[in-house]
Amino acid sequence: MDKVNQADNIASTPKSDEPSIIADEALFAYFALYFMALLSMLIGCFRSSAIVRHHVEKNRKMDKSITIKDFRSFPVQSSITLCVLYLFFKHDVILMRLAMYTIKGAHYAIETLMPYNDVMFVDKLIELNNMTINKLTTISERIGTDLMNTTMANATAASGWALFSKHTIRPILRWITCLLAITCMSELAKPFVQKLINHAPKCFGKFRENIFYEVVVVSSKTEDFERPKKLGSYWFDRYDIYGSFLCLPIIACHLWKNHWITNNLIGLALSVTAIGSLHVSSFKAGVALSCGLFVYDVFWVFGTEVMVTVASNIDAPVLLKFPRNLLQISDPLSNAGIKFAILGLGDIIVPGIFIALLLRFGESRQKRRYFYSAVFAYAAGLFITTWVMHVFKAGQPALLYLVPLCVGIPTLVALISGDLHHMITYNEDHLVQHDDSDVEDESENSDAEAVGDNLEESKKRK
């Protein structure tokens, strides 16, 4: 998914003019990321198993699940999101092309965008401006009033793109991620909040009583909401509200300082919650999803500069990071002068939801060897990724090593154990609540199959 090591955030090996202690600090940073990734993945897997078990005990269906039909949309949606972010972060190239056709457009771009761009960009615009003047002097009489209209149109477009630059997109992404993190962190803190409230004095009786709420979004073609269509729902209780208030200081500190410690706390919460909440319905769906995102990761990392640009410019807690020069930090409350080793959350979540599926499969067979083998494969793949990145001094797509190992080793263990058929055909589709459209499709398919069987029987009789 994301690269383990991106752009200027990491120097893979210490330079000759840097202190020798940098190498030891880099190894410590890699170990810290390694430990955080394994810990969040394991907690998320056991949490996923507990959630499914809770639904089975309550005889309740899962709201959503990733089926084999859905695996195609994940790489496509991820690619679209990645390209949109790349356009936002590379908007200066578009502005340069807008400015090169008009005199005033070039002047506008130089004056407006100078605080946001480096000297090379400004020099390039000045050069383009001079080229434009030389060209327009020979055809100025022919252009007439069209010149002013084109100039103003390009200047307006440039000002619009300037509003959506990386300097405005970064805080927006940070706020969106932090708002999502409030829900995730309150959900993880809910058991501790519940124990704390239950041991509170009796004078807090009203606060100890738990009340459940549900927010439902429906649509209807009539004002009276006859035959409304349910678009979605979200339920929560008082313990979730209490947990949100407990997590607010962490979110506020991150929005204020954007510190790497609060970034990791939010990133771990997002990883654990995502692995527990994203349910994969079958082994085939898990393999298809992993392979699709494997191709997505390798293509955008090795084929283009898109992944590198987005990962090096994004400023949201969607990755784990740890200082490579921890002992040389002068101000522990600031990120100034820190070189980070980073690991994208996608490299934890994507293998994690597949390993969680193997854990549930092993529990259904009363065998955990597949889960243990998958955890070993993930640990080995992450180690290989870090080693290759450190040796070749370049960022690596972690899924390039994680997906083949996490899929191949448990499959090999199942083949040796004689459970390969049960693993391939393992399905939890009966635990998922299907939409009416899916039920209608299934009924239509069953009716079509029944008609086909009747036709075959009639042909045989004839």
UniProtKB/TrEMBL annotation:
It comes from the Eukaryota. GO terms for cellular component: cytoplasmic side of endoplasmic reticulum membrane; lumenal side of endoplasmic reticulum membrane. Residues 435-462 are annotated as: Disordered. Belongs to the peptidase A22B family. It is found in: Endoplasmic reticulum membrane. One of its GO terms (molecular function) is aspartic endopeptidase activity, intramembrane cleaving. Its main location: endoplasmic reticulum. Signal peptide: none annotated. This is Intramembrane protease 2. InterPro entries: Peptidase_A22B_SPP, Preselin/SPP. It holds the Pfam family Peptidase_A22B. GO terms for biological process: membrane protein proteolysis; signal peptide processing. The chain crosses the membrane at residues 27-50, 71-89, 263-281, 293-316, 336-359, 371-392, 398-416. Keywords: Endoplasmic reticulum, Hydrolase, Membrane, Protease, Transmembrane, Transmembrane helix. The keyword Transmembrane helix applies.
